[in-house]
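Supplementary notes for students who missed Thursday's class. We covered one full example, reproduced here. Read the sequence, then the structure, then the short commentary at the end.
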Amino acid sequence: MRPTTLLAAALLSLCTSAACAGPAAEPAPFFSGYVQLMNNYVSRGLAQSVGDPSAQVEIDANAGPGVYGNVSVVKTDWVRKLYAGARVHVEADYVLGYRVVSARGVAWETGLLRLEFPGHYAAQTPPVRKPDTTEAFTRVRWKGLSARFNYSLTDAYGSPDSGGTWYLDLTAAHPLGPRWSLIAHLGRKQARGSDPATGAEYGDMNSYTDYKLAAARNFGAGVSLTVAYTWTNAKPQFYTLDGYNVGGRHVSAVLQKDF
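Structure (token representation):
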């Protein structure tokens, strides 16, 4: 699950028509990407690396209108801490989408997101359900505003009979001069379905709202730093791993280099 939408929105909003006046820019390359280093990988309000440092790399194809795609790999730790004997250290995301950009700069995207967690899962009874998930998404962007809706087409993150779980991401970025930007985010996860073994409703256990306040600094040459404070109202009894509340309050720093 990728945190880069906040950073991208912030950095894109730094460049206004007045501040960026000058010779016409060269067309953006078809392939681009970035590398990130972070003290704690927080996505959708949850500390996916369970408080440990992480790194992420992403390759994007076509930043403009039309068909686009990307592949990203990020270090995570929650799967191996959740399932005894698991040796699962990364999440791999695959996106295929279509983008339309209007003359007024409104961008609309829709597509599919596939999240996979490759590695070794120890044999258990009952067998472990891998958290691999497929989601459909749609997104609208205008200037520093963004709204994205993800809807699970499969069981969500290994929970049986949880298809239809959704996540809403609302983000706003406000520039402060040519280098700085402030970012605010509100997210909502609504779990669907119930545990077939116990009958417990996932909505009561796993749904939550998350919040983020962040500041982004663009250093030029494709280097940027984002520092964020995040928190949720997720129930700790369902989001604590090895004594660490992954849905608690976190301060994260993300150093990014674009290429």
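Commentary. DSSP finds three helices and 16 strands in the chain. The CA atoms of residues 166 and 190 lie 5 Å apart. If anything here is unclear, bring it to office hours.
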